[in-house]
Amino acid sequence: xxxxxxxxxxxxxxxxxxxxxxxxxxxxxxxxxxxxxxxxxxxxxxxxxxxxxxxxxxxxxxxxxxxxxxxxxxxxxxxxxxxxxxxxxxxxxxxxxxxxxxxxxxxxxxxxxxxxxxxxxxxxxxxxx
Length: 129
Fold this sequence. Notes:
This protein is of the alpha+beta class. It is built from 3 helices and 4 strands; from the N terminus they run H-E-H-E-E-H-E. The longest helix is centred in the middle third of the chain and has 15 residues, at 49-63. The protein is flat and about 75 Å long.
């Protein structure tokens, strides 16, 4: 495809019928039972990553969640929050899913707990004598 045709299609928003179009709000693909405290999200515009993280932080503190860990990737496109689990994880996951789903800045999100990589087990080598 030549560059002018691509620029024309991008400018006027032309999409082929078989291409998947971006959604305008986050997808509700998470099961409530999957929530274990971690939420990973992808932002449409990486330039807004700090502002979105600040909004999420304010909302969670207002709702009584305790943030244990927060990270943003180097590119600013992927963010991660890890919350302390409360008495009712099902209710917490509903609140979090409802809030994240309504944010137009987010492309999508999922419940995911990032854990540290386990150290590889090195077997002991026995020396033959």
